[in-house]
Every structure is written in C-alpha cells, then in structure tokens.
Amino acid sequence: MFRQISQSVWASPQIGLADVDAAAAQGITLIINNRPEGESDDQTPGDAIAQAAAAAGLGYVAIPVTHAGFSQAQVTAMVDALKGEGKILAYCRSGTRSTLLWSLAQASLGADLDEVTAQAASAGYDVSPVRPLMDMLAAQAR
C-alpha cells in the first residue's frame, strides 16, 4: 500500500487507523496528511489519524491539498515537514497529490527534476501535470 518515492518518503492512498501501526512497524516517524477534511464520507478523519500517530509515537502534520491546486504556502509547509530525520509517509485519496506536493518541494530545493520525475514514476505516479511549476520553482532555487 505504501509506495516508496525516495529514500525516506512514501506516498499512499487514504490510510486507516491500522495503517498507522503498520507505518510505525515499517519505521515511519512522520505522517503527512494531504487530504482535506470531509472530502469523502469514507475517509478516516485527520484527527483520528493524528491521535493514532501520537499513540504510536509518530509525528503528524496536516497540509491539505484540494483539487484547486497547489500554493506556495503548501510547498513551503511540505519542505519544512521533509526536513526532519526519519521516514515519512504522506497520504491523500490516491497518493497523487502527496507525490505532486513532494515533487514541488523537491523542485523548490533545487533537486534534479528528471530524477524527481523518475522517482515518482517508479512509484507509479506521474508528475507531468505540475512539471511547469516544478521548472519554475527550480529556476527560483538557483
């Protein structure tokens, strides 16, 4: 269920409470919730995931991304979340928004965009919808 997109980051579709324990067993130290509350009736509320993460000794941060797109504040928040030590699991409905936000964060840090694109693709995600924004962020990072 968890798809590795980098040495320390995994993306996933919506997780449930049992998945928090599975993440902890896998060595995840931080869970990033990229799903807005109330997006779907079947999603586990972020507060429940946050409580389960705390009980498992994991960090938790919410950086909700709607279908409206990405903001600089979201990219900055993702960069800040990725600065920590340890393994990170980011999730949304399908894992796509989490991966796209990760790729934008990497671009803003000046990462090799072809490598970022390849890492996402190896996990089954296509970052081409945000590639122009990645290019812009990478140019600003230079």
Note down, in words, how this protein is organized:
Pfam families: BLH_phosphatase. Residues 2-108 form the Beta-lactamase hydrolase-like protein phosphatase-like domain. One of its GO terms (molecular function) is hydrolase activity. There is one protein chain. This protein is α/β, with parallel strands linked by helices and 142 residues long. The chain has one domain: Protein-Tyrosine Phosphatase, Chain A (Alpha-Beta Complex). The chain is built from 6 helices and 5 strands; from the N terminus they run E-E-H-E-H-E-H-E-H-H-H. The chain has helices at residues 17-25, 46-55, 72-82, 96-108, 113-122, 131-141, and strands at residues 3-4, 9-12, 28-33, 59-62, 87-91. A 5-stranded mixed sheet has the order 1-2-5-3-4, sandwiched between helices. The radius of gyration is 14 Å and the shape is globular.
In short:
The protein is α/β, with parallel strands linked by helices and 142 residues long.
